[in-house]
Amino acid sequence: MKIFSAAQIREADAFTIAHEPISSAQLMERAAGKCATWLEEHYAPHYPVYIFCGKGNNGGDGLVMARLLLDHGYKVSTGILQYGAQASADHQLKLEALQQQYPASLYAIGDVSDIPTLPPDAIIIDAIFGTGMSRPIEGWLAGVVHHINGQRGKHTIVAIDMPSGLRADESSVQQTVIQAHHTLSFECYKLAFLLPENAAYTGEVHILPIGLHPDYITHTPTRYLLADPGIIQTIYQPRNPFAHKGTYGHALLIAGSYGKMGAAVLSARACLRAGVGLLTCYVPQCGYNIMQLSEPCAMCVTDEDPHYSLHFHRSINPATYKAIGIGPGLDTQPGTAKALEHLLDSYQQPMVIDADALNLLSVYPYLLYKIPAGSILTPHPKEFERLFGATPNEVARLELLSQQAIKLQVYILLKGRYSAIACPDGAVYFNNTGNPGMATGGSGDVLTGILTGLLAQDYSPKAAAILGAWLHGFAGDLAAAHLSQEAMTAADIIQWLGKAFLEGI
Length: 505
Ligand SMILES: NC(=O)C1=CN([C@@H]2O[C@H](COP(=O)(O)OP(=O)(O)OC[C@H]3O[C@@H](n4cnc5c(N)ncnc54)[C@H](OP(=O)(O)O)[C@@H]3O)[C@@H](O)[C@H]2O)[C@H](O)CC1
Ligand SMILES: [K+]
Hints:
It is a single chain. By secondary structure, this protein is of the alpha/beta class. It has 2 domains: 2-220, Rossmann fold (3-Layer(aba) Sandwich), CATH 3.40.50; 231-251 and 269-278 and 317-504, 3-Layer(aba) Sandwich (UDP-N-acetylmuramoyl-L-alanine:D-glutamate ligase), CATH 3.40.1190. It is 42% helix and 15% strand. It has helices spanning 6-19, 24-42, 57-71, 89-101, 139-150, 199-202, 214-219, 229-235, 261-273, 288-294, 312-315, 334-346, 355-363, 381-388, 394-408, 443-456, 461-483, 490-495, 497-504, and strands spanning 2-3, 49-53, 76-81, 106-109, 123-127, 156-160, 182-186, 204-208, 224-227, 250-254, 278-283, 299-302, 323-326, 351-353, 376-377, 411-414, 420-422, 428-431. The chain is elongated and about 85 Å long. The two termini are 16 Å apart. The model has no long low-confidence stretch (mean pLDDT 97). Bound molecules: ligand LZDS7PUF and potassium ion. Potassium ion binds at residues 58, 126-130, 159-162, 164. Potassium ion (K) binds at residues 58, 126-130, 159-162, 164.
């Protein structure tokens, strides 16, 4: 699914009006109708509805909702904020219709004191500003937003299209923004919804299709995309009936150290369950028995050192391996950094670089320039900051993420609720599978195993990154559904990987 900017959504709107064709007033009727239906499906008519309308088309949506809900027997009170701007043409049209049919529903808000006391079970609809937000909310309008937010503990707040005050494409940090429980947004995700810094504003996001013209949607390129099931199905390659174990590649995982062998075992298991043909694990001597006993399907090569992997550049022939994953539980010994440098100098194919291997890159940043093109780096936000520096907000971090992926010609998968996969061509894919149960030790090691396994099977790095992140999250969702987010562990993500292939694709 494409993520359009606010400007592109305006273009899509105009394109639909011109080419469907449909009048803007009818399109508003369709959009607001979807919101009214959503509300009716979730709240019975005995819930009083308080709609707060701005003077643009977002407010117009609120006016249409008011009329439709009143038609269906709801008690609706519709306050219109009287700030200076001229009301939009469609707002005026919809206001006249409401005035004619239900004049008693309407009242003006010129200050916070005009807002009535709400009955206990009231639902608040925020139709103040949508994608037309052009500057921060200030003065008494900010007072209205604060007043509504003050009701959050007592009343459900539903934002139409965007929580008012939230910018679709820019950071809204330290601005006045409605804190909704639900956001009903039209046609597509907005970038702002995917950033953790906005979680308190959007609540649960529900995307309602309003029939924007498919030609615009199909032919307009976007920088940001959401990896939806349609994209996943085009990436997934069913296995060849004539396959043998050589068909699906030989992967090497360089992982584990004294006290952190669990990371290597989790990665190895995940790599195998992701479908790799053959797997060799390179571990320090202390890891030999652990690996051999834990995972009989993997082969094992050991370092000369009892506790750390310091010499893998000497004892492995990189040409043997279709894909290499390095980092989980590796530790950050100077000797490991040296071995990593030799490996980067001799291996030309895309690798998966995670955890302590990333930490080594942040200590020796010149190594970043030796990473083979097309490699996949999988930092969490702290690792990202250590690698590339801090940013004032998450929109700036996304920009930095994309710049670095272009500059280094690698894929950078920044882990989070919506992991962002920045590609060397400038595109950024968001993943929306996964849940907070996955915020647990070992989850990242599992992802590294999956990605390495997919790379070894000849998925392109881009396909491996998108499919791997999606499978990892979906398996986590299945694990949480059966075990709870609290009780699930990273090992359970691996257990549900099979079901994720069977049910998710
Ligand atoms: N294609 C679709 O998705 C459809 C969307 N619809 C709805 O339309 C809105 C966008 O409507 P628009 O009229 O462009 O914008 P808004 O309603 O969000 O707000 C514009 C008015 O607000 C003023 N404004 C903006 N920021 C502030 C502020 N900080 N303080 C005060 N006033 C502000 C702005 O004034 P200007 O001076 O900037 O002109 C306007 O008066 C979209 O979100 C959907 O809800 C359609 O209904 C259907 C198709
Ligand atoms: K709104």
